[in-house]
Amino acid sequence: MDKSLDADARADLMIHEMTLDEKIQLVHGAGWGVLRAGAPVATGHNGGAGFVPGIPRLHLPDINLADSAVGVRMAAPESRYATLLPSVIGMAASWDPDAAFLYGSVIGRELRAQGYNMSIGGGMDLIREPRNGRNFEYASEDPILAGTMVGQVARGVQSNHVMGDIKHYAVNDQETGRNILNAVMDKRTLRETDLLAFQIAIEMAHPAGVMCAYNHINGDYACENDYTLNQVLKKDWGFQGFVLSDWGGTHSTVKAALAGLDMDQPGDDNFFSDPLKKAVQDGTVLQARLDDMVHRIVRSMFVNGVIDQPPMPRSVVDPFSGRDDAQKIEEESLVLLQNTGGILPLAAAKTKSIAIIGGHADKGVLSGGGSAQVDSPGGNAIAPGPGSSPWGRAIYFPSSPMRYIGEQAAAGTQITYDAGSDPAQAAKAAASAQVAIVFVTQWMTEGQDSATLSLPDKQDDLVAAVAAANPNTIVVLENGGPVNMPWAGHVKGIVESWYPGIGGGEAIANILFGRVNPSGKLPVTFAATEDQLPHPKVTGLTERTGNNADAVTRNQPRARPVEFPVDYNVEGMAVGYRWFQEKNLKPQFAFGFGLSYTRFAYSNLKVDADAPNHGMSVSFDLRNTGAQAGDEIAEVYVTLPSAAGEPFRKLAGWKRVSLAAGASQPVTVALDPLYLSIYSPDTDKWSRPAGEFLIEVGGSSAELPLHSTVRLAAQ
Ligand code: BGC
Questions:
Q1: H helices of 27-171, where?
Q2: Whether the bond into 398 is cis, omega within 30 of 0
Q3: Domain residues for 691?
Q4: Are residues 395 and 505 both part of a single domain?
Q5: Do residues 604 and 498 share a domain?
Q6: Does 498 lie in the same domain as 607?
Q7: Which residues form the pocket of ligand 1, taking CB atoms under 6 Å from any ligand atom?
Q8: Which of 210, 375, 392, 397 has minimal CB crowding within 10 Å?
Q9: DSSP structural state of residue 481
């Protein structure tokens, strides 16, 4: 307890006093607890997804872990409130590291107020599969954008003396068959894409935990994968925290312990209890390895202050500041995808009647399901009632877009609502109004992917019918990830709101009426058709298995589930927008794209390749040429010399800049040398290739007005 010593020394002193049983107690959870009906709940368990009992005689507190991908899950059983933030993919659409930090701070603040000392949020898997059910928990198809934003979230969490986590390490890029699939990816691709995202976040945030995934990676389960855990995470990146398994993701004792797993969760499978003790006693797992596991856990507790500044479970969450923060982040995350004829922002004085259609927009906004599900205050807004929000149902939060549209419309504006269940009736409502706003929803959840990119429940027919009836149709999307919009050419406005969070209704209205100038940009490509994708169908999703991850695995008692490969070498490093460029395909909406109510002009590009850190410094002038203030996300892409074998541009940096109408500003973006380098599996090293580098700058991956080439030597 001597605070003058560093975390490692304090951990070692404590470990010195521990018995073998106490050490074993720390490296596994206390079972499924509240997650599974009938499972015992240990004393001291705070009601979250995980619990590791502490050692009171040594002043080592319990570890209470809570799912908190988009806000704290499982708050309701104790009548505790939690803020629903916008989805992670939405937060990433802000391209604003400060918004990401704020996002994590809200989570950390509320975890602490509820007595939790560890978050198990931090979704970091790359969006390789646009139909992945968990894309709303992940940030981007680009490793640098994803790594930077999720790294900032983890920093924000940990700024509250709460241990942070990054998951699911690694390549848990689809839900279908997640417990059995084998993600196949060559080493160079791994290091330059999926693992690069983790590397960036981990080196930036030093999270306490890294959660290993359910799937195999190149043959070995992620939680017993010597390459990804020992060699890359711990050796190359110097990760000093602990690796914890996804819930039920441990498959062995000795293999997992030797491969680098430090904590088995939730621990009822007995791999890291008596069997580990026996393995240590008979020397199959060295005592030093067990001490290393415990050291990693205890030092993380010291480093993050959970021992010196434990959470205050009796304080309460401040719902108002949470809501304001959620709204602020959402206002930066909304992406204006289409604005034909400048239909938006709506001029309140000139808009006499508005037909609002679909998406339960009279009641609230949609949220994503699974372990990221936050409890909606008052229950599901479309069927209010007490209790928590269950895993398998589409849950709406009480932030009604219609209410806020009503508040911003001029007095006397006629506003109607139609549920949208009958396209003909909706068209009738639309025909009698000046403007029609259709809310479309795509509910996504952990445990299952969408079979297609199409909106469910025939909503495409609904939009088409409304658009045919009203020339001033605007569509607002509430969705987990990319969707097809076959009606895009027939509507005037399209606003992407993701799952917008508890401040969503107001944020959407603020964008529609122009109180907020939209500034988000897509962190993922929206394909025009599924044929354009490297995997036109979700691998392993067949009629027999359906799209349910667990049906593919656990719930087939008679048919032993068969492991299947997902071959990510098909697209390899050409993930997302890079694939579209390499194959010369035109997506529906490109990565990095997003409109504003003003316009920006780029000029005067200068590239300094002798930047002091041996990266590159890219500068240019940015001018707001429109009539109102706005934020622009200026994006910098690099195409490496042809010898690198990567014939596509890659995002290498960006800056979010606020400019008053008519103002202009010099902008400098520093490019990290790592982002100009390639990884060689032969030498196991990163190096900058020699030759001509193409630097491009602009406001979307598909529109880059500035470019320059520089010839550089190898480095
Ligand atoms: C999910 C994890 C989650 C865990 C605990 C698993 O099903 O994959 O993301 O943290 O459950 O709820």
A1: 88-92, 97-113, 143-158
A2: no
A3: 600-712
A4: yes
A5: no
A6: no
A7: 49, 67, 120, 167, 246-247, 371
A8: 392
A9: S
Helix 504-512, helix 319-333: angle, nearest 10: 40
Report CA(246)–ligand 1 centroid distance (Å).
6
- pLDDT per residue as tens digits for the range 671-680: 999 999 999 9
Confidence (pTM): 0.97
Residue with the smallest CA separation from ligand 1 atom 2 is 246
Same domain, 353 and 495: yes
Which of 371, 548, 553 for mutating ligand 1's site (highest number of atoms within 8 Å of CB)? 371
Q: CA-based angle 623:628:634, to the nearest 5?
A: 40
610 shares a domain with 487: no
Looking at the structure, tell me whether residues 623 and 506 fall in a common domain. Answer: no
Nearest CA to ligand 1 atom 7: 247
Is residue 167 domain-resident? no
Q: Which of 477, 495, 512 is the last residue of a domain?
A: 512
Q: What pLDDT score was predicted for residue 715?
A: 83
Active site residue 610: no
For ligand 1, the distance from its centroid to the CA atom of residue 248, given in whole angstroms, is 9
pLDDT tens string 497-544: 999 999 999 999 999 999 999 999 999 999 999 999 999 999 998 755
Centroid of chain to Cα 186: 24
Q: What is the 3-state secondary structure (H, E, C) of 153-178?
A: HHHHHHCCCCECEEEEECCCCCCCCC
CATH number at residue 489: 3.40.50.1700
CA of 247 to the centre of ligand 1 (A): 6
Q: How many Å apart are CA 220 and CA 222, to the nearest integer? A: 6
Share of the chain above pLDDT 70, in %: 96
Instruction: Kindly indicate the confidence band of residue 269, based on its pLDDT and cuts at 50, 70 and 90.
Output: confident
| pLDDT over 80 (residue 204) | yes
Least confident of 35-39, 248-252, 457-461, 639-643: 35-39
- Give the per-residue pLDDT at 79: 63
Identify whether the C-beta of residue 636 lies closer than 8 Å to the C-beta of residue 693. Answer: no
pLDDT digits (tens, 9 = 90+) for 580-599: 999 999 999 999 999 999 99
Give residue 96 CA to ligand 1 midpoint distance, Å: 27
* Locus of tokens 């000139």: 350
Q: What is the position in ligand 1's atom list of the atom closest to the CA of 266?
A: 5
Q: Which of 67, 175, 214 to mutate to test the pocket of ligand 1 (most atoms within 8 A of CB)?
A: 67
- Domain membership flag for residue 707: yes
Note whether 334 and 476 are same-domain residues.
yes
Q: Is residue 53 part of a domain?
A: no
Tell me the per-residue pLDDT of 638-650, one tens digit each, with 9 for 90 and over.
Answer: 999 999 999 999 9
44 within domain boundaries: no
- Catalytic residue (one of 96, 173, 246, 418): 246
Question: Domain check: are 329 and 428 in the same one?
Answer: yes
Domain count, the chain: 2
**Banded pLDDT at 558 (limits 50, 70, 90):** very low
Domain boundary among 512, 532, 548: 512
